[in-house]
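For the sake of transparency, this paper describes our internal protein records without simplification. Such a record has a labelled line for the sequence and another for the backbone structure tokens. Nothing more is needed to write down the fold, since each code stands for a local backbone conformation. For reference, a complete record is included directly beneath this paragraph.
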Amino acid sequence: MNLEILKCHGSGNDFLIIDELTKDISFSDQQRADLAQSLCNRNGALGADGILFVLKSDSCDARMRVFNADGSEASMCGNGLRCVARYVYEVTGKEQMKIETMKVDLSVEHVEDIYIGIPTFKVEISPVSFDVADLPLNIAAKTLVNEKLPELSGSLAFTAVAVPNPHLIAIVETENIHSDIQERISRKVNSPNDLFPDGVNVSFVKALGQDEIYVRTFERGVGFTNACGTAMSASSLVTCIYGMNKEEKAIDVYNNGGKVRCIVHRLHSDGDRYFIDLIGNATYVYKASVEVDPEEPDHYTLLTSEPFDRENQLYEEFQVQVKSYLERHL
């Protein structure tokens, strides 16, 4: 089959969009997993962190399914949701939309550019749970908030939170960022282990200044990425819980792929329920067409590729500013 693909990224976290919303195509779950493993392979003609399948929804403007590069399905993806939000915005013309994800329907909105000329979208990150059973994390306590896990580190304290993707977050110093400890911990908890039977995203968070943090994430099913939207959102929440930042106030979150803004909200009337606004770019890299057999996707052929040169140039300018700032502060 001839398959049209749109490559996009949120904070450098890149994806392939496949449109099942307006196109008359569909895939089995096994085909989706196989396509993700093949098309996202960095040694191939495309390469990406995952595939975003955009489908019709009975209750929302669209439905998003996320398959990681290893073929596993993610329950949510904040950076990917921004890309899907832009795509659906351009299809429907709606400034505010609802997108169905695996576990919850989420609000998304087209907002003012985070940097001149960069299409920017605000997406809701929820639900939030500190119950370790929701990750799952196998410990005796019901929650893990700013506590040590001796099996992983004798010095670092961690917080575990599901948003709904599972995250393990540590506030660290610069020397930790430049060490190999994050990779060692991440590979341990994403291999067969007793603590996290399903694996977990691991983030190291460094305070940079007032209302500014840096987040680096080892993403389950992917590895180190330029950025992880749900991780940046969860990390912002953790800094508010620790008193480092404040709820209802924008936090600039720097990452290796750029910068986003997060705003943490707490609904006191609803049992102290949290949700987070994730605000950042949704940038198109190129549109392409490939000839692929969904039953044997390893042997696909790239037919055409058309880059979005101006978008890429503007985002590169933004990245240069971010990189310069991080070089001075990390």
About this structure: The longest strand covers residues 258-267.
